[in-house]
Write a structure and sequence with these properties.
CATH superfamily of the largest domain: Cytochrome c-like domain
Radius of gyration: 31 Å
Oligomer: single chain
Distance between the termini: 22 Å
Largest sheet: 2 strands, antiparallel
CATH class of the largest domain: Mainly Alpha
């Protein structure tokens, strides 16, 4: 159970309760692409409006002088908008007549439909990230994580903290208040991947006797403190003081043998405490 106390991924924890760096990168990239396309379309549209305005100011002789083959961008713009030639407008004329104003049955511009389809894809990606796979927290969950991280940071900076143990000599606490503190932290920061009952989700099951890095109090304390390299389990040493790490580890050990429903199968080596 080396991936102890996952918070969804190492990036989640390292951003103190926010979405992962990878998720933020993809969301930002998607947003940047969408904004860039919108800016490009608007810029081209404005240029065409300016060109049309200039054409309105030109004399017939000037227009005739520029009546040669349209340029590349003009042809591209016409294609993007699916313009119909003036001589074909009669074929798409509707019967509607509003004070002498005729209505054409034009299709929506292809660029507009393309942007619309892009927003659908973006919405699907957003739905999968936030509501299906839940790889990033919603606002309320993010707020709770940030508040818990701030509380953990405050506790870790207590100036008068007295510690009479280290990672080799630490023993489980039986104090109800300290166990409750460990439970609160576990359910706030670790349940996303281990579930609130410890049965495991993205992270391993913490309620059986199988562990990847040892199941003693000292082993569990070290994993919380130092993390596990090359995994999603980060080091909490910079955010939790030794007493609170002990509280969390102690609470975790109370989950042994609870056998919650839907728990993940064993993962690691069997650990039997010495009597």
């Amino acid at each position: 159970m080396s991936c102890l106390f996952l918070t969804g991924s190492s990036s989640f924890a390292q951003t103190n309760g926010g979405m992962s760096d990878t998720t933020m990168m993809y969301m930002a990239l998607g947003l940047a692409i969408l904004v860039s396309v919108l800016v490009l379309v608007v810029a081209v549209y404005v240029l065409q409006l300016l060109r049309a305005f200039v054409n309105l100011q030109m004399t017939e002789e000037q227009k005739a002088a520029r009546a040669d083959e349209p340029g590349y961008f003009a042809r591209l713009w016409a294609k993007w908008n699916d313009f119909k030639p003036m001589e074909e407008e009669q074929d798409i004329m509707l019967d509607h007549d509003y004070d002498g104003i005729k209505e054409l049955d034009n299709h929506l511009p292809p660029w507009w439909k393309g942007l619309f389809y892009l927003t659908i894809v973006y919405a699907v990606v957003y739905l999968l990230i936030f509501h299906v796979f839940k790889t990033a927290p919603l606002q309320e969950e993010q707020y709770e994580r940030e508040m818990a991280a701030a509380e953990a940071l405050r506790a870790s900076k207590e100036a008068d903290l007295v510690v009479d143990f280290d990672e080799e000599t630490v023993t489980p606490t039986e104090d109800p208040a300290e166990l409750a503190d460990g439970q609160k932290f576990f359910e706030t920061q670790c349940a996303l991947c281990h579930k609130a009952d410890g049965g495991g989700l993205a992270g391993p099951n913490l309620t059986d006797k199988y562990w990847k890095h040892g199941g003693s109090m000292s082993d569990v304390y070290k994993v919380i403190k130092n993390g596990v390299p090359n995994t999603a389990m980060i080091s909490w040493e910079s955010q939790l003081n030794p007493v609170r790490i002990r509280n969390v580890a102690s609470y975790l050990l109370t989950l042994q043998g609870t056998n919650p429903p839907g728990a993940l199968p064993p993962d690691g080596e069997l650990y039997e405490p010495e009597n």
